[in-house]
From TrEMBL:
Species this chain originates from: Roseiconus nitratireducens
InterPro entries linked to this entry: Glyco_trans_25 (IPR002654), P-loop_NTPase (IPR027417)
Pfam families, sorted: Glyco_transf_25, Sulfotransfer_3
Protein name according to UniProt: Glycosyl transferase family 25
Stretches assigned to the Glycosyl transferase family domain: 79-144
Assigned keywords, A-Z: Transferase
GO terms assigned for molecular function: transferase activity
Length: 475
């Protein structure tokens, strides 16, 4: 009888284990992209791997360092994005050349949800047979206009997915199509790999809607809720750092319905600009570019002001477009601000006097995530203040006759109060403008509690310091 050496027995056992692992896994290989100098992220990534692990043993793939391997002259997205793009391309090339027909890839900032294995199993059990690319983590873009389509309880057809920190690829023809797309010549200026992949997904989305999928299309799916987020490490591309694993907007919640939006409501010259700037100083995301009439800042997002004036030009009291169109425009804007607020780990808000008139539309747009900060000032004082402004700036677009001023102010206040009375379940925080100017710190503390945020002392000081106690010159 022939004696088998111990080393051969070990080799056979290892081969058997690998074969069993391959049979039990959805994909053949598992790759982890990691820069040579980031040993910290490599250790952190392996330390947080969920158990049981549903994939083959992760293989570290040395990431391309865009600082050492410079991009070509036509590349406009930065060195980090170039390294990310080339790393993913090299993995795809490796699989194509070595006959690997399926794989999952993670970037070393990928962090896993609770009960990952259980939730992953539910997702893959419902994946359609034609799947070629399945995202495990990401961010849904343009989701207001093009929400992900529900395929089953745990599977959605996305419109455009941003980020490449966790996804699976299957099928040689799909891999060839993916490779060709990544090397096509129709890249947009300054796009990253995830942006370019997103355009491929969009074509599939529209193709299915029009029943014209087209040759070379890859079937792309995403889970109802993201299974993989991004760890709180500094990004190699953007340089940002977060305090905890970040999960972006889920397919089942693309509208960020769970995130509040604080609408600062009040007629013109009622103190809403002051309150909006207080919110801004406290860290509330009021917009990317703030403007307004006040010299100290009006706290008005320029985009929101333009939207409101386009549909109800001052001093008009009623919108000129349909309710459905107005609701859609507001929803698109507010959901975008919510998404940015989630990114920045804060809450979103908005201010413009027209929003009093649009309260019903706001509610239809964002539902029960609506929160109201109602600034109260005697309506006669607000009317006199708007009339005074109009006299000083006669001939400008923001000036009106005394009668127009009074009609608009009373209309805005009535619409706000009628909405509040008709919707007792919507949380409302009232701020008396006289109290704000005379007892500022107390009112700021009350507001912070309503917002549910934890500003640092410097932010609170800036909020309190913004208030001028001599503001109430019109009563």
């Amino acid at each position: 009888m022939t004696t088998v050496p111990a080393t051969s027995t070990t080799t056979r056992a290892n081969l058997a284990a690998k074969q069993s692992e391959k049979q039990n896994s959805l994909v053949e290989r598992c790759f982890l992209i990691n820069l040579d100098g980031r040993h910290d992220r490599l250790r952190e990534w392996f330390d947080q791997l969920p158990k049981p692990w549903p994939f083959p043993k992760p293989e570290r793939f040395a990431a391309i360092d865009g600082r050492r391997v410079p991009p070509p002259t036509h590349w406009r997205a930065g060195n980090g994005a170039w390294g990310c793009y080339r790393s993913h391309c090299l993995i795809l090339e490796k699989c194509l050349s070595e006959g690997i027909d399926s794989y999952v890839v993670f970037e070393d900032d990928a962090g896993f949800c609770n009960d990952f294995a259980k939730r992953f199993q539910k997702f893959v059990c419902e994946l359609p047979d034609d799947w070629g690319l399945a995202y495990l983590g990401g961010q849904h873009l343009y989701s207001v206009a093009h929400p992900p389509v529900r395929i089953s309880e745990h599977v959605y057809l996305p419109y455009n997915v941003n980020r490449t920190h966790a996804f699976m690829v299957r099928g040689r023809s799909n891999m060839v199509s993916l490779y060709r797309h990544l090397h096509s010549r129709d890249w947009k200026k300054a796009n990253h790999i995830d942006h370019h992949l997103g355009r491929m997904i969009q074509r599939r989305y529209h193709g299915i809607a029009r029943r014209n999928v087209g040759k070379g299309s890859v079937a792309v799916y995403a889970p109802d809720r993201w299974l993989v987020g991004q760890l709180p490490t500094r990004s190699n591309i953007s340089g940002r750092r977060w305090s905890e694993t970040r999960f972006f907007n889920d397919a089942v919640n693309v509208d960020h319905e769970e995130e509040p939006f604080f609408a600062v409501l009040g007629p013109h010259r009622s103190g809403t600009s002051c309150v909006a700037m207080i919110c801004h100083h406290l860290g509330v995301h009021m917009g990317n570019q703030l403007g307004g009439f006040e010299a100290t800042g009006g706290g008005e997002a320029v985009g929101l002001m333009e939207l409101c004036e386009a549909v109800m030009k001052f001093p008009a009291a009623d919108p000129t477009i349909s309710d459905s169109d107005l609701t859609y425009r507001l929803k698109k804007f507010f959901v975008g601000k919510k998404s940015e607020a989630v990114r920045d780990e804060t809450v979103a808000g908005g201010k413009y006097p027209h929003l009093c008139r649009f309260a019903d539309h706001i509610h239809k747009a964002i539902g029960n995530s609506m929160r109201i900060i109602a600034v109260d000032r005697p309506i006669e004082a607000s009317i006199r203040s708007l009339q005074s402004r109009s006299r000083k700036h006669r001939g400008n677009w923001y000036a009106a006759t005394p009668q127009q001023c009074e009609q608009l102010q009373r209309s805005l206040l009535k619409h706000r109060e009628d909405f509040i009375a008709a919707h007792p379940d919507i949380p409302v925080h009232r701020i008396d403008f006289a109290s704000l100017t005379s007892n500022t710190k107390h009112e700021v503390e009350r507001l912070v509690k309503f917002l549910g945020i934890a500003p640092d002392p410097d932010e609170i000081d800036a909020a309190v310091g913004h208030v001028n106690p001599n503001l109430r010159k019109h009563g």
